[in-house]
């Protein structure tokens, strides 16, 4: 009887391998040989999923975006939309091992994308996914009359910039999670609230 292969599980395993290698060697250090050694897969099996380097990097960025989206969807809405939104923002800060790994991979992409347009395009996948989610949320706040003095696009850009900065400061150990929370909560409460 042929073995049933869970392709989604294999892709997740491969993404975890690529992420570990990015964290250890940087984006520029990831290659098929290292992926083969680390994963224990044959180069042919890897090429089945990821035929070239750009596919590897795009895959790693898309996997990050999917994980964040899944955490967003896992938050049950309450009667307090402001609190719900703060929970969403909290989910993208590096406050546990999983989110720290995501942030380290994100930062590796950001660092290399300054000089490599191909990486910049790959990094755009994760940026656009988060920006679109934030913009959609702020459009909802705008319909409620809760968005103060901003367009949804401007508010999404501002909060995303705050998230990016806090990610960097948390990864470098320059601020505490409590200080990050104070910054996020303070700015969010300035941007949105009941009329």
TrEMBL record:
Record has Secreted as a keyword: no
Portion annotated as DNA-binding: 31-50
HTH tetR-type domain residues: 8-68
SUPFAM superfamilies assigned: Homeodomain-like, Tetracyclin repressor-like, C-terminal domain
Alphabetical list of PROSITE patterns matching this protein: HTH_TETR_2 (PS50977)
A Pfam family: TetR_C_6
Keywords from the named record: DNA-binding, Repressor, Transcription, Transcription regulation
Family matches, as PANTHER family: HTH-TYPE TRANSCRIPTIONAL REGULATOR RUTR, TRANSCRIPTIONAL REGULATOR-RELATED
This protein's name: TetR family transcriptional regulator C-terminal domain-containing protein
Organism (species): Deinococcus rubellus
